[in-house]
Amino acid sequence: MSENVEHIEVTTQIGCPVQCLRFCPQEVTAAKYFSDSGNAPYAKLSLENFRIMLATVPKSVQIVFSGFCEPFANPECIDLIEYAYNEGYTLRLYTTLYGATTSDVQRLIKIPFTTFNLHLCDGENTKIPLTDTYKDNVFTVLNTVPNLTFVQMNQLFKSNNRENITRNGITKKTKRGYCWKRDVPAMVLLPNGDLQLCCMDFALNYKIGNLLTESYADVRARYLKNKNKFELCNADCKIKISKLEHVFHTLITSYMNKRS
Ligand code: SF4
Ligand code: SF4
């Protein structure tokens, strides 16, 4: 299934303990979020608030557990996942399994994710204590998840340049090019209900709306109305491609679809 579909990326906690700081500007996100003292009670996403936030989100919008933190850093993560699944959403998961208990993983492997991406330790950038529980959990997932994919943040990892843009601001402007996220919203949900522009907004500079106080339809409409005005899209964001590349991909995809 294509990942270029409308979705919400769920950040279950602000401040990720895995600290892959070479590629992931965690410190900027936490400093910005907690600079507003009103956010102190919202360090973690609660099930109670998640229910309110999802209430107006159509089932056609995928729920992706990833966002700006390892999902299982929040001990309620498995409850959040089961809730979204039981509500009928299509789910994706990107996790290191840091913080997951044995019981969490036994519940987790019963959920059919369209993408289950396991971020493995790399001995350098990703700080995961190699406990027996962690190793057993990784082995359980390896043995049971049929569509498992992997990532490692080692020397071969290619980031989307978010660490530099987040830490240094937009130092180099590039052509806006084509980004599917400008046509198909893929906002990031924070524990306080804020919806941020996209997965590049680790600095939390582009709040589009809030799901504790507004409906998803209202926030979505505001996003689409302003989609060509976001300054962040002028940055050297590696997710966008040139318009020529986009036309080429579209033609190739359409040709291959006709042949199959
Ligand atoms: S686990 Fe993910 S969110 Fe956490 S620091 Fe590493 S890359 Fe960032
Ligand atoms: S910042 Fe990058 S990924 Fe986000 S909407 Fe703009 S071009 Fe797309």
Description:
The protein is α/β, with parallel strands linked by helices. The protein contains 8 helices and 8 strands, in the order E-H-H-E-H-E-H-E-H-E-H-E-E-E-H-H. The chain has helices at residues 26-34, 47-54, 77-86, 102-108, 132-144, 162-168, 216-225, 243-259, and strands at residues 7-10, 62-65, 91-95, 115-120, 148-152, 186-189, 194-196, 207-210. An 8-stranded mixed β-sheet has the order 5-4-3-2-1-6-7-8, with helices on one face. Strand 4 (115-120), helix 5 and strand 5 form a beta-alpha-beta unit. The longest helix is centred in the last third of the chain and has 17 residues, at 243-259. The radius of gyration is 18 Å and the shape is globular. The two termini are 16 Å apart. The relative contact order is 0.16. The model has no long low-confidence stretch (mean pLDDT 94). The structure holds iron/sulfur cluster (2 copies). One iron/sulfur cluster (SF4) binds next to loops.
